[in-house]
Design goal:
With about 500 residues, the chain is an alpha+beta fold. It contains 15 helices and ten strands. It folds into four domains: about 90 residues, no CATH class; about 140 residues, Beta-Lactamase (2-Layer Sandwich); about 80 residues; about 130 residues, Heat Shock Protein 90. Pfam families: HAMP, HATPase_c, HisKA_3.
Length: about 500
């Protein structure tokens, strides 16, 4: 498991990286939503006119100090306390202010200003005062300004703002500010350079948006993103560790099953999909084990049946004939010694045949040591021993063959055993030929004898046809072709095995 965890291309790290990315994206989305919601609320505000903004901001700032304003108030103090902050507040928005003045209810000028705080610092107080006086003198030359000042001096003036348009394109606005007694105490006179039509009072450029996000996110926003990413990575590592550990258990169990160790089981008590998969795989392993045991038992029963048949058809018949010859020799021993002698000779021949049959059966039952030698060597040794035992000439011709699977080698060897056994018992042949040839993508086995042959149409009704059927089934199990031809001059068996198909199936 440790090797899997630290291999960065593994499922563990891919799942962990997925959790990290998902958590990071979610944290960024939450931070953006939290930051942008107030901004969106500001963007969704209703459009207001600059005049309404002037009334709201001017009245809000002046009304807090209106009761303290009197004819004895210092002009410079009022400028810094009221006019300058008001000018700064309204100057940042469009349209821009160019002049602000305060008049009392008698029309006396309390204070005025035409520069911002930054301009006041850069130009100086004296220069700013001169600029304000020049602006006021210029405004007084206009008829609209004179008319506005007369309205301010009028005791019966209206409480609504008055707007006049100057020849310079500016708008002169007079806004009365009432005191706590609902009487007009101060009039605010402003000169606006721009349109007074309604507009959205809240705009933001992309640079301002980025700067706002940056100011909101540091440092608490970055701490939140880092903490969320760390928690997501930790959770991803825990979940990935549990998942890969369970998958590794399944992989270990299936590897042991491939080696035949079906007693190994997957231990997973979870009730999710992987737990159900583990249970299904355990059930499959048990069924495979039962199937292999059943096939093994069937193979044992089949081998016992064949052995019983061979003993009955060959050895038992020979021993019965030996018994008959010995019985005849015993009866004729005192009457006709010559006939008795011939019966003993026949009994001896039958005993030799029975011995040969038993040797053939024992050779077929003996395990073939193909793991210690290759197929060609094993075939040559078996054929040489068979020829010596049966006194039948056997010629063997083999070619260099490619490496074969154990299933193909066992099938070829068993078919050869069965074919030579049938030749020795039934064909009465004198010469046998065996060829093992290698063709492109296939192996060919040819076995031919010069015996008396048999009738293929009636052989299936006889007991020894089980041997032929067994050979056919062995070859077809490895996807090969089995063919047999028999005439009065001999029998020929041809086997064709496609090696490439068998390797893919294995």
């Amino acid at each position: 498991m440790r090797a899997i965890h630290w291999r960065f291309g593994s499922l563990f790290w891919r799942l962990t990286l997925t959790y990290l990315i998902a958590t990071l994206v979610a944290a960024l989305a939450i931070e953006c939503a939290i930051t942008l919601m107030p901004l969106l609320r500001n963007f969704q505000q209703d459009n207001v006119s600059p005049l309404q903004a002037l009334e709201k901001q001017g009245a809000a700032r002046i009304s807090t100090s209106i009761d303290n304003i009197s004819v004895n108030s210092d002009e410079e103090s009022l400028r810094y306390a009221l006019a300058l902050p008001l000018f700064d507040d309204i100057y940042r928005d469009e349209p821009r202010l160019t002049f602000v003045a305060l008049f009392d209810h008698n029309g006396r000028l309390l204070t005025s200003i035409s520069c911002t705080r930054s301009q006041l610092i850069s130009l100086g107080s004296r220069r700013c005062t001169q600029q304000t006086q020049q602006k006021l003198s210029k405004l007084q030359t206009y008829r609209a300004t004179q008319q506005t000042l007369r309205q301010i001096n009028n005791p019966n003036r209206s409480s609504t703002p008055v707007i006049h348009h100057l020849p310079t394109g500016e708008s002169l606005v007079s806004i009365p500010v009432q005191g706590s007694n609902k009487q007009t105490r101060v009039s605010l006179l402003v000169a606006v350079n721009g349109s007074l039509a309604p507009q959205n009072t809240y705009t933001m450029s992309p640079e301002q948006l980025i700067a706002t996000l940056w100011s909101y996110w540091q440092p608490a926003g970055f701490y939140f993103i880092f903490l969320a990413s760390a928690l997501g990575t930790g959770a991803g590592m825990l979940i990935s560790h549990n998942l890969t550990r369970r998958l590794h258990r399944i992989a270990q169990a299936t590897q042991k099953w491939s080696q035949g160790e079906f007693q190994s089981a997957i231990h997973d008590d979870a009730h999710d999909e992987l737990g159900q998969l583990s249970k299904d795989l355990n059930n499959m392993a048990e069924q495979l084990q039962m199937l292999l045991l059943t096939r093994g038992k069937l193979a044992i029963i089949e081998e016992r049946t064949r052995l019983k048949r061979d003993l009955h058809d060959a050895v038992k018949q020979h021993l019965f004939a030996v018994q008959m010859q010995l019985s005849a020799g015993r009866v004729l021993f005192q009457k006709d010694a010559t006939s008795s002698y011939h019966h003993l000779i026949e009994a001896e021949k039958l005993a030799v045949l029975a011995q040969q049959e038993l040797a053939t059966l024992i050779e077929a039952l003996r395990p073939v040591a193909l793991t210690d030698k290759n197929l060609i060597v094993a075939l040559e040794e078996f054929c040489h021993a068979w020829s010596q035992r049966t006194a039948i000439m056997l010629s063997v011709h083999t070619e260099q063959i490619p490496p074969l699977t154990s299933a193909i080698e066992q099938a070829i060897f068993r078919v050869t055993q069965e074919a030579l056994s049938n030749i020795a018992r039934h064909s009465e042949a004198h010469n046998v030929s065996l060829e093992l040839l290698a063709t492109p993508g296939a192996i060919t086995l040819n076995i031919t004898d010069d015996g008396h042959g048999f009738n293929s149409s009636t052989v299936h009704a006889k007991k020894h046809s089980i041997g032929l059927q067994s050979m056919r089934e062995r070859i077809e199990a490895i996807y090969g072709l089995f063919a047999i031809e028999s005439t009065a001059c001999g029998t020929s068996i041809k086997v064709h095995i496609p090696v490439a198909v068998q390797k893919e199936e294995q």
